[in-house]
Known about the structure:
- This protein is an alpha/beta fold and 491 residues long.
- The chain is 26% helix and 29% strand.
- The protein contains 11 helices and 24 strands.
- The chain has an 8-stranded parallel β-barrel with strand order 1-2-4-5-6-7-10-16, surrounded by 6 helices. It has a 5-stranded antiparallel beta sheet with strand order 12-11-15-14-13. A 4-stranded antiparallel beta sheet has the order 17-22-19-18, with no helix packed on it.
- The longest helix is centred in the first third of the chain and has 23 residues, at 2-24.
- The two termini are 48 Å apart.
Amino acid sequence: MMLRLVDSQKRLALLAALFVFALIILPPRAEAKPWVMCYFPGWELGNGSTNSTPPLSAVDFSSMTAVAYFGFSPNPDGTIDTTYANYKAARLLAAAAHAKGAKALVSIGGWNTESGFESATDSAIIGTFVSNIMALVREYDFDGVDIDWETYSGPIPTSDYPNFTNLANMLRDSLDAMRSGMLLTSTSSGGNQSLMADTQKYFNEINLMTYDLSAEYGGWPTWYNSALYSDGDSLDGQPLPNANSIVRQFEKAGVDSSKIGIGCEFAGTVWEGASLPDVLPLTVTLSSSSDVPLYNSSGTGIMQKYFNPAYYHWDPLAQVGYLSIPAGILSLLSPSYFISFDDSNSIAAKFNYIRKNHLGGLIIYELGWGYPPGSPNYPLMEAVKNIQADTSTTVVSVPPSGVPSSPYLLQNYPNPFNPSTTIKFGTTSAGRVRVVVYNILGQRVAILFSGFLQPGEHALSWDANAYPSGVYLCRLQTSSARLSIKMLLLK
């Protein structure tokens, strides 16, 4: 009896030792890199060469994991409206994506395509409909399908759930039969969480359209186009629309967080009659224009017509930037403007949110709206690529707390540190700011921040878990100052 007890104790001790070994020696399972899927409408891709906006040569497709060729809608008889399709352009798009390791998808649907989907997914027609979709995939040498089943207003009605489910099931089977690694994705608005929870097994990605969250609706205050969080205010007892609330609805319904993507729009909402968020129409006369591109050929895009660093502000609660333009600034009789849009700062905040909450990734709608006409490259997509590459930075706080008399960069705390530290700095005026970390050899190892900030004190955290012990130089650069501190990482 005693011998068996001793043997049992030895086995327990061995198991405990193996468990400790696994915790200490074995590396943790790495999370998948967040996806980035960008929409390229057929009417902007054109023929893929002479009339493409942006030109394919200006787009670095390594900045994304997939591009969706957008603008194909279902006809009631199961055929597909290919008005905006171009065979040559589609093949060029697929080739450009594949050359950089990205995938190309055909996106079926769009706003107010509900009636077409309802008829095309009828039991007597759905087989033809799926066959026609797969024919496009083969014809264009694409790598999957994006379903964009959208209504005129509101979520997909429950009466359409069986048809949606059958479509997802049949497409999944058809794609898997074609070849391994094919993608099936779906976009979704708020309110579809139970449908997506029930059908998530068919999809690689479920991308939430967390943009176009504000407009001149009856009784609505001015609000952000694509806020990450509410700022504490409410409308009819509910938080003002924000990505975090929508994500939590889908998670609560049972959708796997790793399959959830959030949205970014290379456009925004221009409000006239107010220059700040949360202004009620009871006090002023408001009007708004949605889906105003950042750039367009007519020169009336947000960055072309309205942007000035002096008008730029950052909301640290909603985690989004905006323009606040008083009346009479753009012209003698011009109204006041509140303009909400996504930029490199809000995109960085969204990537931080995705990583922190272990979500799947980001969708960007759409490529034509963020491209400066005539530019040989695509600065905003370059920013997206840089933000993805730097996983070590978290923006802890960017609220102004009084305007300093001169720029400053405080010693990081703690110092020495392992593996993270906080860096505080102050700026005296609104403008572009860069905070960069170099190693002792003068080689750049991380860009902690690059964008516009308002005057005040700001704080960043740097997670140096991926870097070796040693002395690092942190450099702050503004329009009027260049400051540095030394930091000691001890592991």
